[in-house]
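Predicting holo structure, zinc ion bound.
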Amino acid sequence: MPLYLHDTLRREKRLFEPRDPDRVTLYVCGPTVYDYAHIGNARPPIVFDVLVRLLRRNYGPEAVIYARNVTDVDDKINQKAAREGVPISEVTARYEAAYLADMALLNVSPPDLAPHVTHHMDAIVAQIGAIIDAGCAYAAEGHVLFDVSSYPGYGALSGRNLDDMIAGARVEVAPYKKNPHDFVLWKPSKADEPAWPSPWGEGRPGWHIECSAMIETVLGLPIDIHGGGIDLVFPHHENEIAQGVCAHGHPHESHAHDGYSRYWMHNGFLTVDAEKMSKSIGNVLLLHDLVQNMPGEVVRWALLSAHYRQPLDWNQALLDQSRKALDRLYGALHRSASVDALELDPPAEFMKAIEDDLNTPGAMASVFALSSEIERAMTAGDLAVASEARGRLLACASILGVLQSDPAAWLEGDVSDTLRVEVEALLEQRAAARAGKDWPEADRIRDRLNALNVIVMDGPQGATWRMKG
Ligand SMILES: [Zn+2]
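Done. Tokens:
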């Protein structure tokens, strides 16, 4: 089935055709590692992890090259390191490790390439030099600035017009800028700040140039897909295009941006209890805390439960629904644990939804249909049907990146050993009572299990159990 993706630049869903089906390239802007990531930061890596899983399925696991950068030099990193009196590498190593641990709990597969800014300074300096040589940037007072007036395509991604931007400019204009929207490619470092040598003096790169330089270095141009959160459209990605185009000296070719990235994808905003997350409101939810208190799959399911381009509100009801959805799916897997899963493709309805610009809510509907089919087939003792539905359910789950835990362990949750022993003993007594047709005793045991919040599921292979809610 053909894959359609919404392209932010062309403002339409387009058939996805990689430049080379044997080498499909994808770049997603990654974390700036100076603190724990918040829940909004988790949406892009999860959305694009689903896309990567889908691409690997369609083109082969080896044919997809996924790069997600690590911003390991930045003003906020510098400030934190200065406050702690440690080198920036100590701060960045700490928070990169925390980020990767959180991602692992969310079943986000590591990218194939994770370029770090501090490892690519030569490429960054070379790209800045090429942009100056193309007449699209200028050096002034230790800074190098991109000259937005030199690139007629500026504003194409975000739909902004440079003249309107200038008319409405409220930005404080630094004296060395020719135009208020000229942006920094290189800036000088103060004596106590990290610095790298360059033809324009010791300093460090601006944020945008790192991505365009590393994309070209690690993937080569043009890449197939560039992704990120919608907040990156302007200025970050707009500036990346300008740099990527102008470094090759084509600022006046009308479709020069096609030579940078062929598709642009952006996920929507996330709010918390209908409010924007902000330190002043005090509603910033750190991913690190969330994944200590609930399974990462609940967070992942919640973030995939709305279409990726839609805004998503994070609230208790969303989490409760996600937990319930996963309990139901794990319940079906647990009930059919004795049946071999056939190695099958996901059903056509699932593929149709997921290949329609990653319609995850539609894909989830067909996942629920499969779990109902498993339950029906197990009740009817139709093991062939159960085996097929189980195989298809697992194929869907591997694209969505869920149902990766052991079903029994998931359903039992954080059950203490004491409770587990008690429940197992009660189930044995119940089986004995039922075998001896001692119905009052069987009822008494059922009430006791009920009081313990345990749900018993009878199946052809005997009873299984899980905790309620
Ligand atoms: Zn970036």
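Residues 29, 211, 236 surround zinc ion (CB under 6 Å).
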